[in-house]
Amino acid sequence: MASTTMNVPVALRIPSFLLLLIGLAPTVSFAPPRRAASAPSLRPAHQDHRFGWNRLYNPSGAKFIVDNFWLSSPQQLLLGDQSAADIPDSSYMSLRNVQFSDLQEKYGERLTQRKLDALMIAALDEEDELAGMVTLEVVVMDTQTKELMSASTSEFRITQSVASLGPKQRREFKNAHVIDIANELLPPTQTAVVTLSNLCVSPTSRRKGIAAQLCGEAERITRESLGYSALHLRVESSNEAAKRLYEKLGYDVVFESVAPVLRVDANAGGFIEIDSETTIMKKELS
Ligand SMILES: CC(C)(COP(=O)(O)OP(=O)(O)OC[C@H]1O[C@@H](n2cnc3c(N)ncnc32)[C@H](O)[C@@H]1OP(=O)(O)O)[C@@H](O)C(=O)NCCC(=O)NCCS
Question: Does residue 2 fall inside a structural domain?
Answer without folding.
Answer: no
